[in-house]
Amino acid sequence: MPVRVLLVDDEPLVRAGLRAVLEAQPDIEVVGEAADGAAVIPLVRQVRPDVVAMDVRMPLLDGIEATRALLRTVAEPPKILVVTTFENDEYVYEALRAGADGFLLKRARPAEIVHAVRLIAEGESLLFPASVRQLAAEYGDGGGNRAARAVLERARLTEREGEVLRLMARGLSNAEIAVRLVVGTETVKSHVSAVLAKLGARDRTQAVITAYESGFVAPG
């Protein structure tokens, strides 16, 4: 089955460019478009996308609030890929904190756009881990976020789960973690699932942000 993508951006040229790049791939299908975050929830319910590629800055409802509303309202929400002009942007980090699964620069090359959509849909590794680290270092409270620290304390991760979380934060996929720890991929998947459940995280990105903001993993 192809990855179903919904495009949300107030610039028609950006939507047209993304559509042209994505629809050139046999395993990706663009199922809808919207010009503002306010239209996201009804469109998601209508077209059932796997991934929403959404501008972080829009006039009526921006990508941050649209992400919060989508995750709060839709029972089984799609993955959210924030599309942005600037990489080192506090808006991007706030969107990730709100529940977005990753971000993509508008100036990205076609191959990078396709890779980002596929990676977000698969959900088995962190998109642009170095950039997420940089954002966490600049906007993530330097490991002093009390709420994040409380989450880590309540989680009571085992030693192996802690190892897995640190490797996730470095951007390693399940297969790469399996090689590093000399275990099977299914074992890693079980550990990742346990980490996400204990942290109450929707996905790897949210788990890694909690790790950074709590000081469990240093973003530098």
Summarize the structure.
The chain is α/β, with parallel strands linked by helices and 220 residues long. The protein has eleven helices and five strands; from the N terminus they run βαβαβαβαβααααααα.
Textual characterization of the structure:
The protein is an alpha/beta fold and 220 residues long. It has a five-stranded parallel sheet with strand order 2-1-3-4-5, with helices on both faces. Helix 4 links the parallel strand 4 and strand 5. The longest helix is centred in the last third of the chain and has 15 residues. 42% of the residues are buried.
Topology overview:
Layout: E1 3-8, H1 12-23, E2 28-34, H2 40-47, E3 51-55, H3 63-73, E4 79-84, H4 90-98, E5 102-105, H5 110-122, H6 129-139, H7 146-155, H8 159-169, H9 174-181, H10 185-199, H11 204-214
Parallel strand pairs: 1-2, 1-3, 3-4, 4-5
Helix pairs in contact: 3-4, 7-11, 8-10, 8-11, 9-10, 10-11
Question: If you compute it from the alpha carbons, what radius of gyration comes out, rounded to the nearest whole angstrom?
Answer: 17 Å
* Topology, number of strands: 5
| Average of per-residue pLDDT values | 93
Percent helix, as a range, is 40-55%
Order of the strands making up the biggest sheet = 2-1-3-4-5
How many alpha or pi helices?
A: 11
Shape: globular
Order of helices and strands: EHEHEHEHEHHHHHHH
Largest sheet: 5 strands, parallel
Structural class: alpha/beta
Distance between the termini: 39 Å
* Unreliable residue stretches: none
| Percentage of residues in strands | 5-15%
Keywords: DNA-binding, Phosphoprotein, Transcription, Transcription regulation
Pfam families: GerE, Response_reg
Domain Response regulatory: 4-121
Organism: Streptomyces salinarius
